[in-house]
Write a structure and sequence with these properties.
Blueprint lengths: L1 H15 L3 H4 L5 H13 L11 H8 L24 H4 L15 E6 L2 H10 L5 E6 L5 H9 L16 E6 L3 E5 L11 H18 L3 E9 L6 H12 L4 E6 L2 H6 L3 H19 L5 E3 L7 H19 L4 H21 L1
Parallel strand pairs: 2-4, 2-5, 5-6, 6-7
Antiparallel strand pairs: 1-3, 3-4
Length: about 325
């Protein structure tokens, strides 16, 4: 009886309670449909409250990722020391950066003495810093990674005026560094007099600092200041990951997919050649509606997990990034 009348019951539930169709989302969609279909079949009155059922359920208990059952052949880890979240039953709360509900506390350090105090307070956690030119998408990158509007994203240069230490879930410190002067030379005097010494002090004195994510607009030419800055950072022993931001703008400017791919390759090679950069790079877009944006976020967060999971310091992270870059270059040559 239930099978014969399920379709009619679902339609009746939608007609009787219009908000029901908006609640049929996420992993509990089927249980929601069956709940209201059953109420229709038993001629029970549907709820008139406007509080979404799924929201109430999510507030009542944390989201748990179900453990995936696999065969013994599939259960072998992909690489030594790596445990798949499916095989280990790793849930959302087990990741350093979650997809939602990240607990973030920000310590603003505008001067060297305050910065040293901030480093001392967070010495027990690994650090990853994010740098880049003003308006290159550095703050948008941080906000997109954390799914929170914490960094000051603006078209006005110089919004970040301190080293902002973001304590993420009490497991990671993501440091937002002041932006380098852009090509129009805004805030160049502030950079030379105040921000550059502050950034240099952080890179030099923060022992838990594992790597730097450098955000660069893929469409921009590399300035001598940027080239000199990254050379100094790498000379200090800190490994750098190049994040080519605003990748979605290439598609907007291209006529078709082949021309988009050619332009992306050309711009990427130009930036790497100008920087004399042989390390690992990522293409990144903060437009979450694009599959490439969601994939880029997953890849970058996975890399951060691996970097802070290294038992050693910067040298071990440098070897890890060199191995990843060599593997990526090998795949590119095969293609």
């Amino acid at each position: 009886f239930f099978s014969r009348n399920l379709d009619a019951a679902v339609r009746g539930a939608f007609r009787s309670w219009p908000d029901a169709r908006h609640q049929v989302t996420g992993k509990r969609a089927l249980s929601t449909v069956l709940k209201y279909a059953s109420m229709v079949l038993h001629r029970q009155s549907l709820p008139t409250t406007r509080v979404p059922l799924l929201f109430a359920l999510s507030m009542a208990r944390p989201t748990v990722r179900r453990q995936r059952l696999v065969s013994a052949a599939m259960a072998a880890p992909a690489r030594e020391g790596y445990a798949s979240p499916f095989l280990s039953g790793k849930g959302n709360d087990d990741f350093v950066v979650r997809n939602d509900r990240n607990d973030v506390r920000v310590l603003q350090c505008p001067t060297p003495p305050v910065l040293r105090q901030g480093i001392a307070e967070t010495a027990g956690l690994p650090h990853i810093c994010v740098a880049g030119e003003s308006n290159a998408g550095k703050s948008s990158l941080i906000n997109h990674l954390l799914k929170k509007k914490l960094a000051k994203a603006s078209s006005v240069a110089g919004k970040t005026r301190s080293v902002d230490l973001m304590l993420v879930n009490e497991r990671l410190v993501l440091a937002d560094l002041p932006g380098l002067p852009s090509r129009d030379h805004q805030v160049e005097r502030l950079w030379r007099s105040t921000w550059e010494p502050l950034v240099a002090s952080y890179v030099r004195e923060c022992e838990p600092l594992r790597a730097m994510l450098y955000a660069h607009d893929i469409r921009w030419k590399v300035t001598p200041l940027v080239r000199s800055f990254l050379q100094d950072v790498q000379a200090s022993g800190l490994p750098v990951v190049l994040v080519l931001t605003k990748d979605d703008r290439i598609a907007d400017e291209a006529d078709d997919r082949p021309s988009e791919a050619r332009r992306r390759l050309k711009l990427t090679q130009a930036v790497r050649r100008s920087l004399d950069f042989r390390g690992l790079h990522f293409h990144y877009s903060t437009e979450s509606s694009l599959p490439s944006s969601r994939r880029g976020r997953r890849q970058l967060l996975s890399l951060i997990e691996d970097l802070i999971g290294e038992p050693g310091g910067r040298e071990e992270c440098r070897r890890l990034l060199e191995a990843r870059a060599a593997k990526k270059q090998g795949r590119a040559e095969q293609d």
